[in-house]
Amino acid sequence: RLKSEAPFAYEHLGVASADTLSQHCSMRAAIEASYLRLGPQEQAVVRRLAVFPGGFGLQAVEAVVGPTSVPVHRLLETLLDVSLLTTRETCDGEPQFRLLCTVRAIAYEQLRRSGELADCQRRQADYVRAIAERASAALSGARQRPCLATLAGERETIAQVVRWLLRDGDGPAAVTLLGQLLRYWVMQGQVAEARRWVAEAVAACEATDDLPATAAAQRLSGILAAAQGELDLAAAALRRSVGLHRVLRDDAGLADSLAHLGLVATRAGDTGAARVALQEALLLANRRGDRPTRALALMHTAAALATDGDPIGATARASEAARLFSEMGDRRELARTRSLLARVAAERSEPDRAADLARSALRVQWEIGDRAELPATLEVVADLLSSAGGAQPQAAVLLGAAAALRDLAEVHPAPAERAATERTSSRLRGRLGATAVAEATAQGRRA
Fold first, then answer.
1. What integer pLDDT is reported at residue 337 of this predicted model?
2. What is the residue-wise DSSP string for 291-313?
3. Reduced to 3 states, what is the DSSP secondary structure of residue 255?
């Protein structure tokens, strides 16, 4: 039976393939005809838009297309009218455009023949660098939402530019770009993607013996590994960064790497090593008048002191860090510090102060969309609720929400954080019962 049906099957596969090929050729011919009917400026726009691998906004178009005698939005309207371009409205109300796959393939051929490809790639790289630089500043302050929306819309373009920089051997430029985007990737839960790019950057810089770029790339690698709870890998990368910065006598890079190494050591339970690294980081930051690194080192020192059972010392360091972050307008780090202060206040049996600090941190973290830091603060609030006495199913709901956010943001708790969460869960199970806690936690995961 199979033998008799086989020729029939192949015959129909052949017909289907021929029909598909015919349709493809007809579509291609129609698109090429539409392209040839356009004016010179419209043709140039279509060609240059072929450098975008996916969607793109109006600012990106203007950057890549370059100066035109007719406003760019008018040229785009013409392309929409002849169906060479599609558009949709993003969540922030801005239009995002896209070339259909077949249109892009044809336009890319035209772009290569025109000799404009290298110039368009350069323009696109300059545009990505500009939005990354703006993002690096904006993600610390109040106006984060527009910045986040722009970066989200250009995700494919950013990846393409990083790939080009690495392929062309410009490791330092790739590392600079990755560093500017680091906070965005962590906040948005794109840590795994960022780690892939940083790993490629490390390899590229090591291959060319570019020590400054390698040192910076290793620091990024360590920060991202720590975010995913891989503390051994994080410490190894940060130690390599510290060693290279010492060789280079780069005190700025050394202080930053030491500050992050101190936090990793604390999370791994080695507070002795943490204090040594953080003391040197503070010394270097004070010598250079480097307030951002000083604030970071103070916050991480507070975490080490809290782990060692010194809540008074931890409160003093964290309060100073909070003051510095507030003066610099860094809302994200200020919220992180307040979350730490809330945890310390809870340990000092100051529930009202802890609750006020946790609410303040949560409000900012929610406003700026910080998926990476929200879980830890939710866990602090859950601990406060469970310590208040009585039945507190809301605490279990918060633990479930925190766990779901950790999964979404690709960030994992350190051993001490995991142990604290388990203590809260155990306390709740003793009051509510294991079944009720499991149901409330599952509800929080779904929320």
1. 97
2. HHHHHHHHHHHHHHHHHTT-HHH
3. helix
Q: What is the pLDDT of residues 174-232, one digit of tens each?
A: 999 999 889 888 888 888 889 999 999 999 999 999 999 999 999 999 999 999 999 99
Q: Please tell me what DSSP assigns to residue 84.
A: S
**Cross-strand partners of 98:** 86
- Taking each helix axis as running N to C, give the angle between helix 171-187 and helix 191-207, from 0 to 180 degrees, rounded to the nearest 10: 160
Nearest CA among 420, 412, 222 for reference residue 306:
420
CB 289 within 8 A of CB 251: no
Rounded CA separation 118/34 (Å): 25
Cβ distance 165 to 389 under 8 Å?
A: no
Helix extents (H) in 50-154 = 58-65, 72-81, 101-114, 117-138, 145-153
The helix (run of H) or strand (run of E) holding residue 41 is helix 40-49
Q: CA distances (Å), 22 to each of 25, 29, 71, 109, in order?
A: 5, 11, 38, 21
Q: What digits encode the pLDDT tens for the residues 138-165? A: 766 555 555 566 676 677 888 888 888 8
Q: Is the separation of the CB atoms in 255 and 293 below 8 Å? A: yes
Q: Which two tokens stand for residue 410?
A: 């690709």
Give dist(CA 365, CA 373) in Å, integer.
7
**Nearest alpha-carbon partner for 332 in 180, 152, 187, 182:** 187
Question: Are 56 and 96 in contact, with CB atoms under 8 Å apart?
Answer: yes
Tokens 């204090």, located at residue:
275
Q: What are phi and psi of 85, to 5 degrees?
A: -140, 145
Cβ atoms < 10 Å from Cβ of 180: 19
Q: In the numeric block, which tokens belong to residue 427?
A: 């306390």
H runs (alpha helix) in 228-350: 231-248, 251-267, 271-288, 291-307, 311-328, 331-347
Cα dihedral 88, 188, 230, 265, rounded to 10, equals: 160
CA-to-CA separations, 390 to 101, 346, 385, 428, 430, in angstroms, rounded: 60, 17, 9, 10, 11
Burial state string for 72-105 with b = 16 or more CB within 10 A and e = fewer than 16: beebbebbeeeebbeeeeeeeeeebbbbeeebbe
The maximal CA–CA distance of the chain, rounded, in angstroms, is 86
Show the low-confidence residues of the chain (pLDDT under 50): 1-15, 18, 21
Q: Report the C-alpha dihedral over residues 77, 79, 83, 88, rounded to 10 degrees.
A: -50
Distance, CA of 151 to CA of 238 (rounded, Å): 27
